[in-house]
Amino acid sequence: MRRAARGLDPEPTGQTAQTGQTGQRVRAALATAMFALSATGCLSFHSGPMPGEPKGATFASVAGARVRYTDTAAGDEAEKKKPPVVLVHGFAATLETWTAVVPVLRRTHRVIALDLKGFGWTDRPEGDYSPDAEARLVLGLMTHLGVARAAVVGHSWGASVTLAAAMAAPERVERIAIYDPWAYEEQLPLFFHWARADGVGEALFGAYYTQRAEDRLTLAFFDKKYVTEELVSSVEAALERPGTKASALAAVRGQRYALVEDRYRTITQRALVMIGREDGVTLLKYGERLSRDLRNSRLIVYPQCGHFPMIEAAAASTRDLHAFLLEGAPQEPSSRVAPETAAP
After folding, report:
1. Which helix (H) or strand (E) holds 176?
2. Contacts of range 53-57, beta carbons closer than 8 Å, 24 or more positions apart
3. How far apart are CA 107 and CA 130, in angstroms?
4. What CATH code is assigned to 58-186+255-342?
């Protein structure tokens, strides 16, 4: 199953260094995109219901946005007495990222998951989409649900949101768990830097953001069996929802990690960092780096696994996450590699 490649090439290493040939391709793509934008107009945001919205979905009004979320304690006072954990997905993803994780965690925890602003079925209003802004959304949803303090789990770009929440409100974030972090300036591909310029970002995202979903997914998984036609089609449909291009661009422009990455060392909460050894989106060295930067951190590496350990190493990674939530990370930093047999 392969489709014709169009638009900007994905960045297989997350590095900003580029060859001259890549730079030429980007400039050519940019020229094409600028022409396309001049013909189609500016990118637009969106608030309110969208076509195809899931029947029975639950929404809350938080910080002026209509936010989709799930809560295993909804309507159940007994469940609300369990310790809460909030699950935060990554860039261009949804709360369905955690489908295999929720049933395990809910045995002992109240599990809350949400679509971040700009993604899934949550609104795409004009405004700030930085990790700090998304962290305020997470904390705001906690307040809406009457949760004073919770463990927070973040994946990829959602890791930077989790880190922002831990720094902004340490009294409300009891501990953090991070999957495959996207949290350092060095990880940003060249076109993210180009997209910061007015007009240039609109052109790039207007012309290319919804293209090459299969290529991006293939890069994210070690075992390509997970890149199914159904998955590709669902991602392509999500990319076409109103306001998605504008909000994705705003989220990219909000990634200014050079301004905050030195502050990760100030985080004192217990932390667990998990990463796939063969991750082609977040290289292993960034998981190792974050684990070093966090004062009280533990690192677990999953072999034969890409950017989604909660899918490719579902049993092992969910077991490790659950144990961390129940028992906490060790006081002394440590690391280990999960056994080869841990991967499904």
Report:
1. strand 173-179
2. 53/121, 54/121, 57/121
3. 33
4. 3.40.50.1820
CA gyration radius for the chain? Answer: 19
As a whole number of angstroms, the distance between CA 294 and CA 235 comes to 33
Task: Please report which helix (H) or strand (E) contains residue 275, including its range.
Answer: strand 270-276
Question: What are the φ and ψ backbone dihedral angles of 285, each rounded to 5 degrees?
Answer: -60, -25
pTM > 0.70: yes or no? yes
Name the residue ranges covered by the structural domains of the chain: 58-186+255-342
Three-class SS state of 59:
strand
* Mean pLDDT score, 136-144: 98
Does residue 230 have a pLDDT over 50? yes
Tell me 135's DSSP state.
H
From CA 8, how far away is CA 137, in angstroms rounded? 31
- For residue 338, the 8-state DSSP code is -
Q: What is the pLDDT of residues 30-74, one digit of tens each?
A: 444 443 443 344 788 999 999 999 999 999 999 999 999 999 999
Residue 90 CA neighbour count, 13 Å, CB half: 18
For the stretch 272-303, pLDDT in tens is: 999 999 999 999 999 999 999 999 999 999 99
- What the block records as the tokens of 58 is 């639950």
CA atoms of 154 and 217, how far apart (whole Å): 19
* Residue 262 buriedness (CB in 10 A; 0-12 / 13-18 / 19+): exposed
Task: Provide the 3-class DSSP secondary structure of residue 58.
Answer: strand
Count of helix runs (H) and strand runs (E) in the chain: 12, 9
With residue 159 as reference, give the H or E element that holds it: helix 157-168
Residue with tokens 């070690």: 222
Per DSSP, 119 falls in state: S
Please tell me what DSSP assigns to residue 336: E
**β-strand 65-71 against 297-302: which pairing, if any?**
unpaired
pLDDT at 98: 98
Q: Are 122 and 68 in contact (CB under 8 A)?
A: yes
